[in-house]
Amino acid sequence: MALSAWPPGRVLDLTRLLPGPLAGKLLLEMGFPVLKVEPPGGDPLEALAPEAYAFLNQGKEVRRLDLKTPEGRERLLSWVRESALLLESNRPGVMERLGLGPEALLSQNPRLVYVRLRGYPDTPDPGHDLTYLAEGGLLGRFPWPSFQFADLAGAYALALTALKGLLLGGGFYEVALSEAVKSVAYPPIPFLDGSVLCYGVYPAREGEVALAALEPHLWARFCERADLPDLLHLAFSPAREENPAYRKLCARLLERTALEWEAWARAEGLPLRRVRG
Known about the structure:
By secondary structure, the chain is of the alpha/beta class. The protein is 40% helix and 17% strand.
């Protein structure tokens, strides 16, 4: 695909809640015009979390359309003929019953990329982020995340699949949220959990700082510039109270505010940032 022809057309975003609209937002940021098509009652997210809804859909054209009526279906078909991508997140079978399934829409526009977001690859069962984490094997291995991990993974998978479809010249694709979880639930690196001295979150005056000096040269520079030369060979020693090196590092970081440490780290070229609320 020639970059001079970018973007190749409009995105029809028929999705609701978080993962689909986030994928639409990602495509919008890539330069696609996005038309978000909502049912007459709107996207439920607008009532549940208005700030999230506004963030996800800012910059999109939003129209409400009743696809259960002949007029609504004909309007959608007219948009399909002029679009490059269509994203939808209805349960399998819903669009087919409306006469708007992949076969029908691709007959109107053979180069259309039709991507369906579903919960599971082999069942129409309902679900949400928590059940997809369970099905994807992540919930049994890691603490329950405080954000919508499956939805975020699904959004990126949906956007990537849409781009793949464009490269291949159109067609129908499906993305399952539970499978998106599996694709990113790789074995963790054991020491990237705050258990070692060089990689963790520490209290400072007026806040906290995140220190991530994993590489030997960065840890060496940190120890030298922070006047902690005796910690030079202790980067991977335990970040526990009984460790004198840990107590010394904590005491040093408490000498300045989190904002001061961040400014210092930027000047020194070190991976340290204050923790923002």
